[in-house]
Structures are given as C-alpha cells and as structure tokens.
Amino acid sequence: MSLVVRRPSPARTRKDNFGLTPPEEVRAQRVRLFLFLGVVAICALGIALYFGAPRLGRATKAWQSRRLAREAFALIEQKQWSEAEAKARDAYLLRPTEPEAWRAIARLLSRAGQGSAALEWWKKLDDQHRLTMEDRRDFAGAALAAGELTTAATQIDALLAQRTSLLPVDTVLAGQLAVRQSDAVLAVDYAERALANKRAKPYDRLSAATLVLSVTTPDSQPYISAWKQIEDLARDPRNAASLEALIYLAREQARAPSPSPGSNTSISLDTGSTPQLTPATQAGDAPSLNLGAAAQPASAGRTMSAIEVADALENHPDGRSYHKLLALELRVQNDPALADEYVTQAIKRFGSGDDETLAALAVWLNNLGRPAKTLEVLPPERALQRQDLFLQYINALAALQRWGDVKDLLTSERFPVEPVLQHMYLATAQTHLGALTAATNEWHRALEAANTAEKLLGLASYAEQNDAIDIADAAYGEAIKLAPKNRAGYAGQLRVALAGGHTARAQTVAAEIVRLWPDDAAARNQDAYLRLLLGASDGEAEATEREAQVLVAKEPWNWLARATLGLARLRLGQNKDALAAFRDVRATGAEPPGALAVRAAILAANSYEEGARGDARNLGAKPLLPEERALIAPLLR
Q: Is residue 467 included in any domain, yes or no?
C-alpha cells in the first residue's frame, strides 16, 4: 500500500492547527498597513502644505506685523521716536500691505511733526475706509501742517459731525483751520469752546490758549484770559502740559540774541530737538484782531516774570538738559552783563554730559553767539561720533569764518553725515572760499545724492536759503516726481518762481496746484491773480471777479483776495468798483507788496494821485513781480 503525502495549500500554511494566523504574520500585516497609511498621510500633508503654507505664512506675517505696530503705538505715546520708528519700519517690511503698519507710520510721522510725509499714509488708510476718530485727528493735524486745507476740512468736518464723541481737541483743530482760512473770530470761538469744556485735558487747554494768542492782540480780554490759562498750566508741575507751557512762556518772554544782518553763517539745517506744542498752529498766517475790552498795557495779565519761568524750568521734575539751558537763556536775557558767568555755569554743568546733553549745550552756545566755546567743549574726536554733534561743530567753525577747516573736515571722509548733507555744506564752504565752480559741482552732487522726497525737499529748502535758486527749483521738481501728491514740492516751486520774478512759470505751477487740489480757495485765488497779471481775457476777468467777491465776503482780512477782486475790476474798466475792494480795510504794514501795488494802481485810476504815489514810493524797494511793478511804474516818474 503506497503512502500518498499531500502538500498543504498556501492558505493552510498561514494557519496554525487551530486555524489562527501566526503572530509574525500579524505583525507584518500591521507594518504594511502603517506604511500605507503613513505614505497616504505624508502625501496629504504635502498637498496641504503646498496649498496652505503660503496662506498660513501670510497670516503669520500679518499677525507679527500688527504686533509690531501695536508696540510702535505704545512707543509713540511715550515719545520714544527712534524706537517707534524701528518698530513701525519692521512692521511695514514684514507685510507692506498691512493697514496697521500704515497706521503706525502715519501716526509716527504726524506726531513727530512730519505732516507732509504722513499724508500719503493717511490717504492709504482713508482709501481702505479704515480711519478711526483718533486717525482723523492726526490726519487733520498733518494736513494743516502741510497746508492742505481742503483735506484738513474734510477730516475736521467728520470729527465735528460726531457730536456725542466730540472732544475738545476736535474744536481746537477746527479753530486752527479757521486761522488758516483767515477767520480769526471763528478761531477764537472754537478755542473758547475748548477751554470751557470740562473734558479738556491740559494739552487741549494749552493748544486752545496758544490759538487765541495767535489771533488776538495783547490788549484784548481774550488774549489776557488765554495768557492766564497758560500761566496756570505752567505753575502746576503735576499736569502733563506744564513743561510745554513753560517752554512757550520762555520763548515769548525772551529770545536768543539774533546775529546782525548778514552775519548768519550757520550752514546746517535745523537739527535741534526743541519740543513743540501739538497740534501746531501757524500764527504768522493769521490776522491779529482786537476782540474786546478797554486798552491795557501789553504786559497786562502777565504775572510770571522771566526769572520765575526760569526757576520753574530749572526745578521741573521732568526737565532735561535742554530745559535747564533754556532757563539759563532767560537769565542771560534778563541780565546780559552776567552772560559770561552763565556760560561758564552751563559749561561746568553740562560740558561733561552724555551725547544728548552735549548736543543741547552746543546748540545753546552757538545760538548765544559763542562758537569758540562750542569748539572748547566739543573736541573733534567727540564731534565725529554723531551727526548732531558734528553739525554743531561745523556750525561753530562756520560762525568763526573758518571755511578752510570746514572744507578740510568734509573732504576728509571722516564724518558721520549723509552724502547729501556733505555736498550741501561743501557747496556753502566753497562759495565762501570763492571757488564758485567747485561750489556748483557740489550742489549738483548733493542733488544726485538726494534719493528720497524728504532729502530732496531738505536740499531744496537749504539751497533756496543760500540763493542756489536753480538747484532749489530742480530739487523741488525731483521731489514732485517721487511724491506727486506732496504739496510741499509744488509750494516750493511756486515760491521760487515768484521770488525770481517768473510770473508765467509761477502761474503754471499755481494752475497745477489747482488741478490737484481744486477745492483749495487760496490756490484758486492765486492762480486767478497771476492770470490777471499776465493779461486775462474779459470773460476770465468776469469769472475771477465773481469768485474773488465770494472769497472776500468769507475772508474779509484776506488782502490777496481783495487784490484779485480789485485787479479783476480794474481790468474790466470798473474803476470805482475796484476802489471798493479796498475801502473797508486798513493797511498795517504786513500786507503782501503785490496787493499794495494793485491798490496804488486803483487809487491812481480813481484820481487819488497823492495816496497812490505815496504807496508806490513805499513799494520801491519791495519784492514785486515785473507785472506788479509795471502797475506802479507811472507813479514813480
């Protein structure tokens, strides 16, 4: 009998005697399952990362940018400008499209007094409909500082419309706008509303009071009351605005000695860090009105003497070296015979201080007319460490007429200033040394080195001050190319054209300003006035007359508007009506020469020869456009 051996089937070999899978096979199955699932998970994760990582990265960067912006806001409130600038810059570089980064930059520039630069960023936020009420306040302040009155009015109107959340600072801003629009009565009304508001903070009261002082005369009751408000703030070192109030009183009561005409040889830009009241007003543009009471001495209402202000500055708990030097300046003004003693005290107290203290001392000594002392306390090796110290060192050399030393220092390649500043100052030094070709070359090098709108505007302003008119005009033009909506560039071009007597050029720039800012009444008036000087048609003159009449009714103290109205009527042959444009206003000596030239021509046209000739003679040495001088030429024969 044969034995047949059958091989077990594969299925049976995987089973044990009881039909169970061996443990080794179970482990192998699990490993294969885990490997399969792992591969699937890795593929899914890869796909998710491929499509989701950019979005996650953007969200992370946005969060980090907003965090840095919030840190910048806190530093801005503490007035730590350098640290705030670094945070705001990092926030923007991390995510250039983040609105909070825009807000941080705009707020920093606004609070630091760079209104023109801030406007671009506020407008970006406005376009995204992201402006808060606090943003609108800073936006309005920046627009006022930059002279964009229409933009400022839009933001201020939005603030005033929020009646339930209206703050005293909002009415102060409205008052500042009224000042710029030559409406002194409305400005005082807004300021007094802010002062009467129980929610007014110390800075609100200070801003409102200085606003009143800017548009009233010292013998008026509003002026006296406002001055008392500032003194009350100054006397209480516990309030936040006391130090600023003391600075204001110090500046009003005593000024640093002014150099004699023609002796200002300082070649640096204004690099001081003098605190400023915020929001700032431009009182120089405002009419001065007597709004009240019986005449009193100019010092009426002033109870703090210069020495009291000096003592308060000296002892203020938040006072720094600048404030103590300002106190010494008051003492010098009060007793000039002791000036040398006070200079010695200042050098002893602050000459060994840190860089900030030494910079403040150098500014003080230079302003006091002691450049030799500046060189004593500021050795070259110390000056070469920082730009602010170096510029004061250069200022001292310039004041001492040491132009050769200035040139040698700026060509030694051992200086902590930007190339644009180096070439600007070298241009001035070369001019004083008589090397006019070298000076021209330096001006052009400065223009090539100015690679931002801010640098170009700084160069243009400096060149304008130093009679390098072609460079100033070119720098303003380049600034406009980089920042087409920055009003400062156009204002500079217009100013340069007017100063050079280029009426047609000035009218072209004025027309461009009107195109960009069509709601600016002052710009429209200037454009219309220049068109009339150049020979506008009867139709243009009639349209100009109608618009000027509205502006004069709204701003009766606006001499430029009256000149436009009078000149339009004179061109139309309406001599008596032209005379009426000046009938109810009196000249104080602060009027634009061109407006007085128009008035003289109108007086002559109405047979008031004696008055017309008197005005013409007074205008003989005044800066006039060629067409304005032609108006009075017959009166000077």
A: no
Cα→Cα distances 149→143, 181, 493, Å:
7, 8, 19
pTM given for the model: 0.73
In three-state secondary structure terms, 289 is strand
Distance CA 425, CA 447 (A): 12
Classify residue 429: in a domain, yes or no. Answer: no
What is the C-alpha to C-alpha distance for residues 453 and 599, in angstroms, rounded to an integer?
A: 40
Domain boundary among 141, 166, 191: 166
Q: Which are the contacts of 272, defined by CB distance < 8 A and separation ≥ 6?
A: 363
Number of CB atoms found within 10 A of residue 140's CB? 29
Residue-wise pLDDT for 16-70, tens only, equals: 555 566 777 767 777 777 777 777 777 776 776 565 556 656 778 888 999 999 9
pLDDT band (50, 70, 90) for residue 557:
confident
For residue 279, whether the previous peptide bond is cis, meaning omega lies within 30 degrees of 0, is: yes
**Number of structural domains the chain divides into:** 3
In a domain, 341, yes or no: no
Q: Do residues 352 and 335 touch, judged by C-beta distance below 8 A?
A: no
Q: Per-residue pLDDT tens for 338-385?
A: 999 999 999 999 999 899 999 999 999 999 999 999 999 999 989 988
> What whole-number distance in Å separates Cα of residue 51 and Cα of residue 59?
14
> Does residue 566 fall inside a structural domain?
yes
All residues at 6 or more sequence positions from 364 whose CB lies less than 8 Å from its CB, including other chains: 325, 328, 329, 346
By residue range, what is the domain housing residue 118?
Answer: 34-166
Other Cβ atoms within 10 Å of 454 Cβ, number: 18
Cα distances from 618 to residues 146, 424, 501, 622, in angstroms, run 33, 37, 19, 8
Domain identity same for 57 and 139: yes
Which of 310, 186, 191, 295 is closest to 246 using CA atoms?
A: 310
Of the candidates 416, 433, 332, 334, the residue with the CA atom closest to the CA atom of residue 382:
416
Supply angle C-alpha 563, 183, 164, rounded to 5.
150
CA distance linking residue 557 with residue 138, whole number of Å: 28
Query: Rounded to whole angstroms, how far apart are CA atoms 375 and 379?
Result: 6
The CATH number of the domain where 49 resides is what?
1.25.40.10
